[in-house]
Every structure is written in structure tokens, then in C-alpha cells.
Amino acid sequence: MARTVIVTGGGTGIGRAITAAFAESGDSVIITGRRREPIEAAAAEEGAGVRAAVCDGTDPEQVGAFADGLPERVDVLVNCAGGNTDYDREQARDLATLAANWRANMDANLVTAVLMTEAVRDRLTGGGSVISIGSIAADKGSGPYGVAKAALASWNVYESGRLGPRGVTANVVAPGYIDDTEFFRDGLSEERREQLIGMTRTGRAGTPDEVAATVHFLASGSARQITAQVLAVNGGAHPTR
């Protein structure tokens, strides 16, 4: 039976690959994002089983309105919206800007997941899954983005306790360096790319499809006893290396 799957940030990069993985399984997928063009393009490419809904996951009113239009049953929620907002903001030169930059990362990477999960909670059913996209940065002491992802992992443990009695699992998938995404805004130097690859045991970057496959597994019937976990997809890269 086709499941109802929500993928926030499902129009590009890892989110786009996750959308494709569930669509290929015959699931009904709803993708959200702040930018209309990429999510509508992704929905059009995948076909009738995927639809797009513009929604800023940091805005409680937009999240609430989105949830009001959902089917009564939601089987899988993938919290993929987020990213390092420092790449889009000016460097902090005073306390006000510093506070704004930290809050932007927390909003994008933690608050989006908290709001969307709460908004669809009553629709999540036994055998369902909530899967959030974390980062290797959570364990690297790498500033506001890493701290936000660390907070996401802690929240996931808390959330798993709330969802468990309903038969719903909650996990985090934490990628390392992944090729073919917008994460670095085309600002990654070849030297830095080689450094990131050199930290892995596999000698290569990961792919969005590999992250998507892990997410898809965690939402499957074979993963019903896996919850409150962070699963790394990083080629064996050690966070402190």
C-alpha cells in the first residue's frame, strides 16, 4: 500500500534524492520548501505521485496551514530542510548580528524539524517514522551550524520517547561530505574538497543517493526496532580528524 511521505527541503540535493527514493517505491510524496521553483520542478520530474507545497518551515503559521491540508494519515516525515545559514549572512561584527546568525542556524536546522513534527504528530500512525537530517558537524565543534545539528540529535532522543508509544520511530541520519548539493553555495575550494575526502576511509565523497537509501531503510518495516539513533553516512570520516 502506498504511504504518505513528507520531505521538507525536498527540491534539491539530499532532499531531492530522498524524494526520488520514496517516489520510486510508489509512495505518495509531498515536498516542501521556501523556493517555489525547485520544489515544483522536482515534483514535475517525478510525476503524479509527488506534489509540491511552498512552506517556510521556520514560520509556525505556514507550517500549521500546510498541516491543515494534509491527509488524515502520514506515514513518514523526513525533516531535511536546513543548511549552514552562515553562508547566506554577513559575518558577525557586533552582538546583534552574532545573535541573529546563531538564531538563523537554530531556526533552519532545529526549529523547522520541531515545528513540522509537532504539526503532523496526530497524523503519524503505528509503523511510521520521523527521520531528520543531521550532520557530521554536530561532533566537530564547528560553530552555530554544528551546534544546531547537535541540538537536533538531542531533540531526536527526546522526540523518540514521545513517539515510541505510538509505534513511531525517530532517527537522525548524519551525512559527512556529500557531492552534488548546494550546501557550500559553490564556494568549496578544490583544496578543501580534497581535505574532506581525505578524512574518509573510503577515499571519496558521499552521494545524495546514499543518504536517501539510509533514510528509506529507516522508514521501512525492517527498521522498526531502530529508534533514538544517529546513523552516520560519512565514509568513516572521524569527526575530530
From TrEMBL:
GO molecular function terms attached to this record: oxidoreductase activity
Spans traversing the lipid bilayer: none
Signal peptide boundaries: none
Catalytic activity, EC: 1.1.1.-
Coiled-coil zones: none
Gene3D superfamilies named in the record: NAD(P)-binding Rossmann-like Domain
Pfam families: adh_short_C2
Alphabetic keyword roster: Oxidoreductase
Family the UniProt entry places it in: Belongs to the short-chain dehydrogenases/reductases (SDR) family.
UniProt protein name: SDR family NAD(P)-dependent oxidoreductase
Protein species of origin: Nocardiopsis mangrovi
Upper classification of the organism: Bacteria, Bacillati, Actinomycetota, Actinomycetes, Streptosporangiales
